[in-house]
């Protein structure tokens, strides 16, 4: 019997992944770059237990049992077992034991905060720990959820698209660790939204099939932007970093809109946030804030530590919290300063509650094993300690 | 003394114009194609009076005096006078007389319904009538407002980008007249919107300067789509016409979004309308409705006469009118049929009033002179009959 529990971070792409060249192996059409967010504020947590007593692989996700027949889950466990068997040679009895997995996010899945990336990264990392698998795990996590491969390291991470047909060279690697740019801060703006979401998997696939602009983006726009982004990160040139981050977010959403039928992820509040950022930067004469949006309406803002108080103060003025929301800013503690004095900034203020709440966090490290007697999500029988009755 | 009054139509592009290669001459980066809408429902009306008694060129637009020093207005009057002088030879005394112009739209300018296109087309057409100018007027109207050149003819009109530096070959020409596809109907959906608008002139210019995707659109996407659109119109292939119209609208808005800072014209209601159209078409198994959006949130739907009753009925179910709105559907009379029976169609219904009202119209003819003693907007002294006190 063996039980391990790990946590893994969320990552936010600043050069976006949108479009696969191989659906089954999850091989992307372009390189992408992300920042790994601190696990202090947001993480997935996974407990893996391997036991000769188990009769079946089982999985509980956020308190609900899910099927391991999901092909992406099945691929991850199969690949880990294959590696474990290769390493163990003939003594591979342990590899044949069944596994119980229990996983939770400490943030709402519905918030659309790249929960699958953290989840798959945590699953693969935990399975690897349980089975004693060494070496690159990113090419396994990638097959669970593409962007999960970028959650296996801290700091700033590049997922190389690779060129091999089998995807062996489509792996993620750290560009700069979490101490490279310690002033970098992140605000996740959770936006009110009523719409039904187009899944990123199906939106992406349709974009590849129908968008005339996506082909141009992946071939002619992203390669140079990736180089420029690495240089901006290396130089810690925030102005340039912000410009590239903003442009790449809009380029991705442009290609999603150019899809037939269109895949629309940003809503009026998202666009109002983007507008706020442009006005704020214009007022400062230099880019102080960057925004990026994934396949949902929530904004992710990047900014430097010294600018957080005034940006948060200005944000609260333009997007007043709902009167009943008592913890509008969560995460890292911060003193809000009065809003910037600029009449041009305030288009509104908008009605209250358009932004539900803000998570204040920073760039952090990769997954890690957590120790202690009470950290596990499974009990000694391999059953979840917390189950939602169904 | 000479007084003429003319009316000119609105046009709606199905292949969009977005981006100039010459700002001053208003030369576009690609061909565009539009449908001219019937003047019965929407038109600009302009009275031009030329008199030796006038001391100054004067202009009243929707009841407010405007300056003729506006360079675009100045260009139009200068070009007309140049042509008139060329035609009149030495007897050009009349050409030197000053002009009074009064122009009105019979629809709200604020509705963002391409009012400048109808307005400049009407101005140039009326001036030409007053000064007896013959020949192509589209290259003059184009210098007032690019898309105005497409309002000088009825039916379906193509604006050729041309290749000459002086713009002489950047003219609009009729592809098919208004009787070619008599079943074609148009619904203008006027959408509630609170946002401040980015002008299309400045949005377009920024797109040319900053959008990586626009270059690809104008060079590699629009040329083939233009050919396909002409063929679809020729064959009266509605399914294909709708696909091309929808794709081109989204492609244009994608490039606007790819601009730095982004130019966002569609809002949540616009996207909900697009979603409604895709659901409706999917339910029918064939494209019954096309949507297109200009530089604003209002939708323009194309559909065939036989489908209007059910589409309107379905639209009213999904987007309920505001209870106080007593004439939700205006223009051509129509019987609404019950909504389509399809649970998938109705995402909502949305809160009432998201669509303010609908104008039901059809493809129509070009500008024309209107006769009669009481048609003029100027009195015998050359002053507007209706002035808004300022």
From TrEMBL, chains A, B:
It holds the Pfam family MDD_C. It catalyses: (R)-5-diphosphomevalonate + ATP = isopentenyl diphosphate + ADP + phosphate + CO2. The keyword Lyase applies. InterPro entries: GHMP_kinase_C_sf, Mev_decarb, Mev_diP_decarb, MVD-like_N, Mvd1_C, Ribosomal_Su5_D2-typ_SF, Ribsml_uS5_D2-typ_fold_subgr. The keyword Nucleotide-binding applies. Pathway: Steroid biosynthesis; cholesterol biosynthesis. It comes from the Eukaryota. SUPFAM superfamilies: GHMP Kinase, C-terminal domain, Ribosomal protein S5 domain 2-like. Residues 8-172 form the Diphosphomevalonate decarboxylase-like N-terminal domain. Residues 186-369 form the Mvd1 C-terminal domain. Its EC number is 4.1.1.33. Catalyzes the ATP dependent decarboxylation of (R)-5-diphosphomevalonate to form isopentenyl diphosphate (IPP). Functions in the mevalonate (MVA) pathway leading to isopentenyl diphosphate (IPP), a key precursor for the biosynthesis of isoprenoids and sterol synthesis. Belongs to the diphosphomevalonate decarboxylase family. This is Diphosphomevalonate decarboxylase.
